[in-house]
Request: fold
Amino acid sequence: MSDKVAIVTAGGSGMGAACARRLAADGYKVAILSSSGKGEALAVELGGFGVTGSNRSPEDLQRLVDGTMERFGRIDVLVNSAGHGPRAAILDITDEQWATGMEVYLLNVIRPTRLVTPVMQAQKAGTIINISTAWAFEPSSMFPTSAVFRSGLAAFTKIFADTYAADNVRMNNVLPGWIDSLPKTEERREGVPMKRYGTSEEIAATVAFLASDGAGYITGQNIRVDGGLTRAV
Reply:
């Protein structure tokens, strides 16, 4: 596994950082993008490559992919994490805020996918894993722009999976529920059948499985990791 390479966007903290740490522990060389500088520092700690920049910037994403290829010569895994988009009552969200939501929750996947897919096609192998949300199919007014655009992400993922499956390039979404990187409340905890928040490490373990050879026949799927929160959907 030591020759395999993983890119993680929005990997400076939370679930993105946990994914980077887990993949590095599994033997991947890692490249990390984050806007805070924490991702670049984490990449150095893990012996990888880091870029301080935004996953909303095509130029920063190009620097990330070009730098990864220069250093490691291949890209086996892309993990698309995300920040937080606008939240407001559904009809109070402005056009500008909707546009921002699309940048944060949909184009954050589409833009880096455009860059890495030709590399993965040439390798005849690769997998893209997107951190989505448990509310993609059962939307909550708490997270309106996330729910709307990640529902769209599910459609994008299915079309991408259909298009590139024959090249052995896979794409799947991980749908976290209440995870410990979010503010904790008793009401939210009680609403989960398992009566606890999930951990960033549990999300990272799911991502690591989807990146592994053991998941080689899984593509176009939305995997809920939410303690049973959306079990009836």
In short: The two ends are 37 Å apart (CA to CA). The beta strands are 5-9, 29-34, 49-52, 77-80, 126-131, 169-176, 222-225. Residues 95-123 form the longest helix (29 residues). The chain is about 45% helix and 15% strand.
